[in-house]
Design a protein that fits this description.
216 residues; alpha+beta; 5 helices; globular
Length: 216
Protein backbone atom coordinates (compact mmCIF):
# COMPACT_ATOMS: atom_id res chain seq x y z
CA UNK A 1 0.00 0.00 0.00
CA UNK A 2 2.76 2.38 0.96
CA UNK A 3 4.59 1.47 -2.24
CA UNK A 4 1.51 2.24 -4.32
CA UNK A 5 1.06 5.61 -2.60
CA UNK A 6 4.71 6.44 -3.19
CA UNK A 7 4.44 5.62 -6.92
CA UNK A 8 1.26 7.69 -7.23
CA UNK A 9 2.94 10.59 -5.46
CA UNK A 10 5.95 10.42 -7.80
CA UNK A 11 3.69 10.30 -10.86
CA UNK A 12 1.80 13.36 -9.60
CA UNK A 13 4.99 15.33 -8.99
CA UNK A 14 6.39 14.47 -12.44
CA UNK A 15 3.11 15.59 -14.05
CA UNK A 16 3.24 18.91 -12.19
CA UNK A 17 6.84 19.48 -13.26
CA UNK A 18 6.01 18.72 -16.91
CA UNK A 19 3.02 21.08 -16.89
CA UNK A 20 5.14 23.79 -15.23
CA UNK A 21 7.88 23.46 -17.86
CA UNK A 22 5.37 23.65 -20.70
CA UNK A 23 3.74 26.72 -19.14
CA UNK A 24 7.11 28.45 -18.78
CA UNK A 25 7.88 27.79 -22.43
CA UNK A 26 4.57 29.28 -23.50
CA UNK A 27 5.17 32.40 -21.42
CA UNK A 28 8.63 32.99 -22.84
CA UNK A 29 8.57 35.77 -25.47
CA UNK A 30 9.45 34.54 -28.91
CA UNK A 31 12.48 36.05 -30.51
CA UNK A 32 11.52 38.07 -33.59
CA UNK A 33 12.36 36.39 -36.86
CA UNK A 34 14.24 38.16 -39.61
CA UNK A 35 10.96 38.38 -41.50
CA UNK A 36 9.23 40.09 -38.56
CA UNK A 37 12.13 42.46 -38.01
CA UNK A 38 12.14 43.40 -41.67
CA UNK A 39 8.41 44.13 -41.59
CA UNK A 40 8.78 46.37 -38.52
CA UNK A 41 11.70 48.23 -40.10
CA UNK A 42 9.75 48.80 -43.32
CA UNK A 43 6.73 50.08 -41.41
CA UNK A 44 8.93 52.47 -39.43
CA UNK A 45 10.60 53.66 -42.63
CA UNK A 46 7.23 54.30 -44.28
CA UNK A 47 6.04 56.14 -41.17
CA UNK A 48 9.13 58.39 -41.18
CA UNK A 49 8.74 59.11 -44.90
CA UNK A 50 5.10 60.10 -44.45
CA UNK A 51 5.98 62.23 -41.44
CA UNK A 52 8.75 64.04 -43.32
CA UNK A 53 6.42 64.61 -46.26
CA UNK A 54 3.94 66.27 -43.90
CA UNK A 55 6.68 68.49 -42.43
CA UNK A 56 7.68 69.71 -45.90
CA UNK A 57 4.01 70.50 -46.60
CA UNK A 58 3.86 72.35 -43.28
CA UNK A 59 6.81 74.54 -44.27
CA UNK A 60 5.30 75.11 -47.72
CA UNK A 61 2.09 76.34 -46.10
CA UNK A 62 4.06 78.79 -43.94
CA UNK A 63 6.09 80.03 -46.90
CA UNK A 64 2.97 80.75 -48.92
CA UNK A 65 1.27 82.59 -46.05
CA UNK A 66 4.40 84.62 -45.26
CA UNK A 67 4.87 85.61 -48.88
CA UNK A 68 1.29 86.87 -49.11
CA UNK A 69 1.62 88.80 -45.86
CA UNK A 70 4.90 90.39 -46.96
CA UNK A 71 3.14 91.94 -49.94
CA UNK A 72 -0.10 92.80 -48.12
CA UNK A 73 -1.88 90.08 -50.02
CA UNK A 74 -3.84 88.46 -47.18
CA UNK A 75 -6.20 89.59 -44.44
CA UNK A 76 -4.51 89.91 -41.04
CA UNK A 77 -7.02 87.74 -39.14
CA UNK A 78 -6.99 85.02 -41.80
CA UNK A 79 -3.20 84.93 -41.75
CA UNK A 80 -3.07 84.55 -37.97
CA UNK A 81 -5.75 81.87 -38.00
CA UNK A 82 -3.91 79.79 -40.61
CA UNK A 83 -0.35 80.29 -39.36
CA UNK A 84 -0.71 79.55 -35.66
CA UNK A 85 -1.30 75.81 -35.93
CA UNK A 86 2.10 75.40 -37.61
CA UNK A 87 4.03 77.06 -34.77
CA UNK A 88 4.61 76.42 -31.11
CA UNK A 89 2.61 78.52 -28.64
CA UNK A 90 5.69 80.64 -27.93
CA UNK A 91 4.84 82.52 -31.15
CA UNK A 92 2.49 85.40 -30.43
CA UNK A 93 0.97 87.70 -33.06
CA UNK A 94 3.78 90.15 -32.42
CA UNK A 95 6.44 87.48 -32.85
CA UNK A 96 4.96 86.36 -36.17
CA UNK A 97 5.05 89.93 -37.47
CA UNK A 98 8.60 90.37 -36.24
CA UNK A 99 9.67 87.54 -38.56
CA UNK A 100 8.61 89.61 -41.57
CA UNK A 101 8.49 93.29 -40.62
CA UNK A 102 10.73 95.54 -38.54
CA UNK A 103 7.85 97.42 -36.95
CA UNK A 104 4.27 96.39 -37.59
CA UNK A 105 1.01 95.73 -35.77
CA UNK A 106 -2.51 94.79 -36.84
CA UNK A 107 -3.82 98.34 -37.26
CA UNK A 108 -0.78 99.51 -39.25
CA UNK A 109 -0.93 96.47 -41.51
CA UNK A 110 -4.65 96.81 -42.19
CA UNK A 111 -4.25 100.54 -42.86
CA UNK A 112 -1.50 99.98 -45.42
CA UNK A 113 -3.36 97.07 -47.03
CA UNK A 114 -6.51 99.18 -47.38
CA UNK A 115 -4.61 101.93 -49.21
CA UNK A 116 -3.44 99.53 -51.95
CA UNK A 117 -6.13 99.14 -54.65
CA UNK A 118 -6.44 95.59 -55.94
CA UNK A 119 -5.59 96.86 -59.40
CA UNK A 120 -2.30 98.21 -58.03
CA UNK A 121 -1.30 95.37 -55.76
CA UNK A 122 2.44 95.19 -55.08
CA UNK A 123 3.72 93.16 -57.97
CA UNK A 124 6.37 90.52 -57.42
CA UNK A 125 7.59 87.12 -58.53
CA UNK A 126 9.11 84.58 -56.17
CA UNK A 127 10.78 81.22 -56.60
CA UNK A 128 10.61 79.12 -53.45
CA UNK A 129 12.85 76.11 -52.85
CA UNK A 130 12.16 73.71 -49.97
CA UNK A 131 14.58 70.99 -48.91
CA UNK A 132 14.26 67.47 -47.63
CA UNK A 133 13.93 66.99 -43.89
CA UNK A 134 17.24 66.81 -42.03
CA UNK A 135 17.34 65.32 -38.53
CA UNK A 136 19.34 67.01 -35.80
CA UNK A 137 18.23 64.25 -33.41
CA UNK A 138 15.19 62.05 -32.79
CA UNK A 139 13.07 64.91 -31.51
CA UNK A 140 14.28 67.80 -33.67
CA UNK A 141 14.30 68.23 -37.43
CA UNK A 142 15.34 70.95 -39.88
CA UNK A 143 13.89 72.04 -43.19
CA UNK A 144 15.83 74.52 -45.34
CA UNK A 145 14.31 77.10 -47.68
CA UNK A 146 15.61 79.46 -50.32
CA UNK A 147 13.61 82.39 -51.72
CA UNK A 148 14.47 84.34 -54.86
CA UNK A 149 12.20 87.38 -54.92
CA UNK A 150 11.97 90.01 -57.59
CA UNK A 151 9.72 93.03 -57.33
CA UNK A 152 8.42 94.43 -60.59
CA UNK A 153 10.01 97.86 -60.31
CA UNK A 154 11.78 97.75 -63.64
CA UNK A 155 14.09 95.55 -65.63
CA UNK A 156 17.12 96.61 -63.62
CA UNK A 157 15.67 95.60 -60.24
CA UNK A 158 17.89 93.01 -58.56
CA UNK A 159 16.50 89.87 -56.92
CA UNK A 160 16.49 89.43 -53.17
CA UNK A 161 17.87 86.14 -51.87
CA UNK A 162 16.62 84.79 -48.55
CA UNK A 163 17.78 81.53 -47.02
CA UNK A 164 16.12 79.97 -43.98
CA UNK A 165 16.30 77.10 -41.57
CA UNK A 166 13.08 75.93 -39.95
CA UNK A 167 13.57 74.20 -36.60
CA UNK A 168 10.78 71.71 -35.93
CA UNK A 169 10.27 69.64 -32.80
CA UNK A 170 7.75 67.11 -31.54
CA UNK A 171 5.32 68.17 -28.85
CA UNK A 172 2.70 65.66 -27.62
CA UNK A 173 2.94 63.67 -30.88
CA UNK A 174 2.50 66.88 -32.86
CA UNK A 175 5.37 68.43 -34.83
CA UNK A 176 5.56 72.22 -34.60
CA UNK A 177 7.96 74.96 -35.67
CA UNK A 178 9.86 76.43 -32.72
CA UNK A 179 12.24 78.69 -34.62
CA UNK A 180 13.18 80.15 -38.00
CA UNK A 181 16.72 81.33 -38.71
CA UNK A 182 17.22 83.38 -41.83
CA UNK A 183 19.64 85.48 -43.85
CA UNK A 184 19.02 88.03 -46.61
CA UNK A 185 21.38 88.95 -49.46
CA UNK A 186 21.31 90.82 -52.75
CA UNK A 187 24.25 88.91 -54.17
CA UNK A 188 23.67 85.30 -55.23
CA UNK A 189 27.36 84.50 -54.77
CA UNK A 190 27.11 85.35 -51.08
CA UNK A 191 24.16 83.07 -50.40
CA UNK A 192 25.83 80.44 -48.22
CA UNK A 193 24.27 80.42 -44.77
CA UNK A 194 21.45 77.95 -44.17
CA UNK A 195 22.18 76.08 -47.40
CA UNK A 196 24.45 73.41 -45.91
CA UNK A 197 23.86 70.51 -43.51
CA UNK A 198 26.75 68.44 -42.15
CA UNK A 199 29.15 70.08 -44.60
CA UNK A 200 27.00 69.11 -47.61
CA UNK A 201 24.67 71.30 -49.71
CA UNK A 202 21.04 70.67 -48.87
CA UNK A 203 18.85 69.02 -51.46
CA UNK A 204 15.85 71.14 -52.51
CA UNK A 205 13.07 68.76 -53.54
CA UNK A 206 10.03 71.09 -53.69
CA UNK A 207 10.14 74.12 -56.00
CA UNK A 208 7.26 76.43 -56.81
CA UNK A 209 6.53 80.01 -57.85
CA UNK A 210 4.33 82.75 -56.45
CA UNK A 211 3.26 86.21 -57.54
CA UNK A 212 0.69 88.87 -56.69
CA UNK A 213 -1.85 86.68 -58.49
CA UNK A 214 -1.76 84.39 -55.47
CA UNK A 215 -2.90 87.16 -53.14
CA UNK A 216 -6.30 86.88 -51.50
Amino acid sequence: MKKSLMIAFLVLMISILIIGCNTDKKDEPKEPTKKTQGKVENEQKEHNQEQNKNLVELVKKVEMLDMKLSFYGIDYDKYMKDIKSAFNDIYTDEKHFARLFDEMDKDTYNSKRAKIPKSETNKYTAEIYISNVYESNKTMKNVYVKNIIKTCEGEDSKPTYITKRYIITENSNNWQIIGVDWMISYDENKVKKYTIFNNKPVDYTVIFKMSEKDNE
